[in-house]
Write a structure and sequence with these properties.
Keywords: Lyase. Residues 3-312 form the Amidohydrolase-related domain. The protein has 313 residues and is α/β, with parallel strands linked by helices. It has a single domain, classed as TIM Barrel, CATH 3.20.20.140. It has twelve helices and eleven strands. The strands form three sheets. Strands 4-5-8-9-10-11 form a six-stranded parallel sheet. It has a three-stranded parallel sheet with strand order 1-2-3.
Length: 313
């Protein structure tokens, strides 16, 4: 089975709800062709068939139900999780889903996580690289990690689209370079906080080949002991406890560096639909096939590792 772990879908009703609750930026996602109308779904399924992708795991990030107002966050999280549950019920051979959580409200997040996993049959939870200015290493989120770890479930991470909270990045570079920087910062916050080793049964998936992590990991190993001596294990060891999707915008050298640094066995197929669609969507698969990696590694990346990771076999 060929599973795409990094795919988005937002109904117009959900985006309208986010906008009414104060997240007006989310409405931009409605122009990308990743809605829930029959026409949009037909077009999506056609692209999946062309690329040989059997199943997509849906996530709302980077338009999650994260609000300081707990009532707004809970309403939006329940709404979109119900949306996804209906889609999975209608198209069980095409879709699975990661739950959206009403963060930063930990108690409410645990309640919704339980509902999503036990009642809706979701595969885990999706969060952004930071949550309203809070890092993923924030102790407030530990109960969520504990529950995912107890269940052996998945934490899928996606850039928040806030330019890594840096004025230097600015609005014109938010996704060009801000997103992979957010990936890199988030994985380091997780590693320094000891999350991968403390919760070894929680299956963390980072997007975009881990951002700059494959290029920086040897430097991080050297610098970490004096800059962050509280880190419980060598960063390169912690990094190999994590999985990474293959969204590298079809750049074979980036994929090869990730495979050589992090391990091909830690890579899973992602497309980032709808940000890659048409030819770009198919190339998200074909660039792995033409990467020059060993054939068994290619087969594992495309067809085996995600199935085992998500318990779909």
């Amino acid at each position: 089975m060929r599973v795409d772990v990094h795919a988005h879908l937002w109904s117009e009703a959900y985006l309208d709800l986010l906008s009414r609750s104060g997240n007006e930026k989310a409405t931009a996602q409605g122009r990308l062709g990743a809605g829930a109308t029959a026409a949009e779904l037909d077009a999506r399924f056609e692209q999946m068939a062309t690329a040989g992708i059997d199943l997509q795991v849906l996530s709302t990030t980077p338009a999650p139900p994260h609000f300081e107002d707990e009532r707004a966050a809970v309403e939006a999280a329940r709404f979109v999780n119900d949306d996804y549950a209906e889609l999975v019920w209608q198209h069980p051979d095409r879709f699975k889903a990661f739950a959206s959580l009403p963060l930063p409200h930990t108690g409410a997040a645990l309640t919704e996580l339980t509902r999503a996993l036990d009642e809706l049959g979701f595969l885990g939870a999706a969060v952004t690289t930071s949550v309203l200015g809070r890092t993923l290493g924030d102790p407030a989120f530990l109960p969520v990690y504990e529950e995912l770890d107890r269940r052996g479930s998945v934490l899928f991470v996606h850039p928040a689209g806030v330019g890594a909270e840096s004025r230097l990045i600015g609005p014109n570079l938010t996704w060009q370079i801000g997103a992979p920087i957010e990936d890199t910062v988030a994985v380091l916050h997780l590693i320094v906080a000891g999350i991968p080793s403390r919760f070894p049964r929680m299956k963390i998936i980072l997007p975009h080949l881990g951002g700059a992590l494959p290029m920086l990991l040897p430097r991080i190993d050297r610098q970490n002991p004096w800059e962050a001596p509280e880190t419980p294990e060598k960063p390169s060891l912690a990094a190999r406890r994590i999985f990474y999707d293959t969204v590298g915008h079809n750049h074979v050298p980036a994929l090869r560096v990730a495979a050589e640094t992090l391990g091909a066995d830690r890579l899973v197929l992602g497309t980032d639909f709808p940000y890659q669609k048409g030819d770009g969507f198919s190339e998200a698969v074909t660039y792995v096939e033409r990467s020059g990696l060993p054939s068994d590694d290619i087969a594992a990346i495309l067809d085996r590792t995600a199935v085992e990771l998500l318990g779909l076999g």
